What we know:
Helices cover about 45% and strands about 5% of the residues. It is mainly alpha-helical and about 350 residues long.
Amino acid sequence: MERLLQWAWLIAQKSVRSLGRAEIEAYVAFCQNPPRSWTGIKKAPRFLDKGGTRVPNSDWRPFVATVAKAAHGRGQRPQLEDYALSPKALAGIFAITGSFYQFLIQEGYTEVNPLLMIRQKSRYFQRIQGKGKIRRLSELQWHYVIETAEIMAQESPQHERTLFIMTALYALYLRISELAASTRWIPKMGDFYCDADGLWWFVTVGKGNKERQITVSDTMLAALRRYRRFLDLPALPSPRDQHPLIPKRLGKGPITSTSQIRVIVQDCFDRAKARLEADGFQDEAEALSEATVHWLRHTGISEDVKHRPREHVRDDAGHSSSAITDQYIDIELRARHASGRGKRVKPA
């Protein structure tokens, strides 16, 4: 909301109470093409801590230009003219601004939500027919990634942690925030548990601070045993096992930074990419340059939904509805392509 407040005060020179439809449309246009003085080329914190005092950071900008991950890997750096407001970011502006005005109405500060006056919001958004594309690894890419993690662990025992992280992200559909310790959740070994039927589960707290119970496959259980052997722990954890799930390599305690996990995963991606290139799979290697940690969750879900009941995958993934899980089913797309692939322009 800070961008709207600054725009209202500095550009429109009006109170947010007096903004109407025309002003909100002007604000959206401003966000789509902000002046260079409002745009940066790197993400920077809004404030800095100096001697216990929070002071404004002169490097902070309301808008940030970025380049694709693969381009960044090739040495390309963002330029101010590269700034572009993505459809997702534009949708966020509408959602956040609308919620802000609903709050102001509830507090009695204003009586009108100017977002509701924009009758043709559809002109701001592209409509996508069918399901959106799920960003995930191909079967070949995942084969190289997990094999690379295994090779790394064989060459250096410290990478047993890398292998376990890659396996857990894929096999348990974990988000990166569910591996790193935080104020709301500290993943520990005791979160793996065996029920009265002898079935193994993993408990985590995910998006929306919701706890969920995840099926632990035999392969995941074997990976846990291997990882615990490396940590010099008993083969399987007890409910009282308080050892951190992902400990720091140096020092004590769990990893608390998602950035550190990203570095570990990216190192594995980079080595897998080099192996793909060496084996002649240039296109697959180039596509892997765009992969992020979250792709491992998407990949695990996409593979499992092919042969598991979608309701089971939905609950393990923590999806709020089956409609979200359905986005990972691409069997219909394959069938549609197969039926149209042989279409001719000239009669046979």
